[in-house]
Protein: Cupin domain-containing protein
Amino acid sequence: MSYPAELYHGDQGEVSGTLWKGDSPPDLVIGGRTNVHYLATGASTGGQYGLYRWDMGEQPGGPGPHFHKTMSESFFVLSGVVGLYDGDTWINAVPGDFLFVPPGGIHAFRNPEGPASMLLLFAPGAPRESYFEELAEVAASGRRLGEEEWADIYRRHDQYMV
Structure:
């Protein structure tokens, strides 16, 4: 394996880092039970990756098993217990545990024992914010979507439920 093509062509480097403070308020609240922090979006990283802090509340929940065709997804547990599904087995992951899922890999997550926090990394960076925001809007409105409506949302956001 070799290094990828250069993305920066200068000789001196530049001051360009962005600091995100840990006590920043969430960028999005989904259904009053999940706070999402947009640490680095696909747009802000030039499509290289998207990184999000996912804080789940007391009420257990999470998406069902699914896969993505265009990106990998990685999970790093920060606090609490996060149920991670690797396509074969559910594992109760604890702080420091990490799961990498390549494109096409079936996976899911949930918070089986109350509050938990993790980092989600999508590579390459995709516009996941629009998916998260659509989920938040559906939850906030109280609308009940039919199977075809959910299928349309999932299709538009590279989410294939199994």
The radius of gyration is 17 Å. The longest helix spans residues 128-141.
